[in-house]
Design a protein that fits this description.
Blueprint lengths: L7 H5 L14 E2 L3 H5 L2 H10 L2 E5 L5 E5 L2 H8 L4 E2 L7 H7 L6 H5 L10 H10 L4 H20 L5 E4 L1 H5 L2 H10 L3 H4 L20 H24 L5 H10 L5 H14 L2 H16 L1 H9 L4 H11 L9 E3 L3 E3 L2 E3 L4 E4 L1 H5 L33 H18 L4 E2 L21 E4 L4
Parallel strand pairs: 1-2, 3-9
Antiparallel strand pairs: 2-3, 4-6, 5-11, 6-9, 7-8, 10-11
Length: 428
């Protein structure tokens, strides 16, 4: 699974009991079985070593880092950059699926920048997501959550993704960043699929490019509106930063793109994964419903147990280098498995057990280092409000069918479901 020169098993052609492939071959990170439950595979990889060659649906191969200590170290390794310009020709040919000119116009946001540019761009958004501001907005978040629950059927059941999780994070995000209501109402969640890989020859490519053009036009409308109607909000401050020369037009559009997509879809997925976990553990669900003061600690454990941000985005070495005992060529993509790190038994005793009393709980669900998620305080507030509201207002909450039959989204980096049918006794 690691490179042959560093893994005797690879030279011997050992077969992985989970994937069935030889250790010298890249391990495929796709397919319905993998997406529904990747943890057996991650356990196998951790046991074999910290770095492994893997392959994604687009055909791109990458180096996957597993294990808590290796992940923590990699996330803080100054040799690894995020700028796409560091990727080699093979990576650009297969992984840069967004066509030009959109790739250059929408892919120069925070996730793809390195210091000092990253430092300046990050500073522009920090105040909007500061814990003190998020705490002040929590009553409004509660109003939004209650309104969505009010719209659910009074009894029987509902789909908690389509009826709640698909809408709540975007409504919160619109409040936090200052997206005008008339524009917020027109946002199409389907546009978020532009971050899912669709290769140039894929039959779905025309639809992909249509979403991309529509989203780009929507971003242009936001910029035009906040240019003519500035306010005291994040979007207005970003537009002003462009006018003052702190951002290029491409960087402004990219940051709005990141806010609209990365600012809400991962929370939608995390709500769904948390609900699935609780429905699989009805005793823990009942305990949390009856002891709401457990909620902050329970949310941290749910984040650790099944993180919706399964893998980090790409990192690259500028020069050939050693990564935890494996030689990695310059420009090859390096990915960290946050889910594999968060289930490492060397860091978390009984790591596969859902334990709301776990302490300490230094999980990596929001990353670590300079790219630690700037919206972590917002995500935590949303998750506490969402889970707490659903458990409190939907007594008797239970799955409407077999949870093992849920269809998990085929996204490369994320975990979540697009549908979660449940039943409940009544809507309080």
């Amino acid at each position: 699974m690691t490179s042959p020169e560093h893994a005797p098993a690879a030279a011997a052609g050992a077969r992985c009991p989970v994937t069935g492939v030889t250790a010298a071959e890249p391990v495929p990170l796709y397919g319905s079985a993998y997406k529904s439950d990747p943890y057996d595979l991650y356990r196998e990889l951790r046991d074999a070593g910290p770095v492994h060659r893997v392959r994604f649906p687009s055909g791109i191969a990458a180096w996957l880092v597993t294990g808590y200590q290796a992940a923590h170290s990699t996330l803080n390794d100054p040799r690894l950059g995020k700028n796409h310009a560091l990727g080699n020709d093979n990576w650009r040919a297969l992984a840069s699926i967004m066509p030009e000119p959109q790739h250059s116009q929408l892919q120069v946001h925070l996730l793809h920048q390195d210091p000092p540019k990253h430092t300046g761009m990050r500073r522009l958004v920090l105040d909007a997501f500061a814990p003190r501001r998020i705490e002040a907005l929590r009553p409004r978040f509660q109003q939004l959550a209650d309104a969505l629950v009010d719209a659910l059927p009074e009894e029987g059941g509902a789909d908690l993704v389509q009826g709640f999780a698909a809408h709540y994070p975007f409504q919160v995000l619109a409040e936090v960043i200052g997206l005008p209501p008339e524009l917020a109402r027109r946002f199409d969640r389907d546009w978020g699929k532009v971050v899912q890989p669709v290769g140039p020859n894929d039959p779905g490519r025309p639809a992909y490019e249509g979403r991309l053009r529509a989203l780009q036009g929507y971003i242009a409308e936001i910029v035009a509106h906040r240019t003519s109607h500035p306010g005291d909000d994040l979007l207005s401050r970003l537009v002003a930063a462009r006018e003052h020369g702190e951002l290029s037009r491409e960087e402004l559009d990219s940051m709005i793109f990141q806010l609209l997509v990365a600012g809400q879809e991962p929370v939608t997925n995390q709500i769904s994964t948390m609900l699935v976990t609780l429905l699989r553990h009805p005793g823990q669900l009942a305990r949390l419903r009856d002891t709401p003061e457990l909620l902050p600690r329970a949310i941290e454990e749910l984040l650790r147990h099944d993180s919706a941000f399964e893998l980090t985005t790409w990192r690259f070495l500028a020069e050939d280098g050693d990564l935890h005992g494996t030689r990695v060529p310059a420009g090859d993509s390096v990915i960290v498995s946050l889910c594999a790190a968060n289930r490492d038994p060397e860091q978390f005793p009984d790591a596969d057990t859902l334990d709301f009393d776990r302490t300490p709980n230094a999980h990596l669900a929001f990353g670590h280092g300079v790219h630690f998620c700037p919206g972590a305080a917002l995500a935590r507030a949303e998750l506490r409000t969402a889970v707490g509201t659903l458990l409190r207002r939907l007594p008797g909450l239970r799955p409407a069918g077999d949870l093992d039959q849920l269809a998990w989204i085929p996204a490369v980096l994320a975990r979540g479901v697009n549908s979660l049918p449940v039943v409940y006794d009544r809507r309080c």
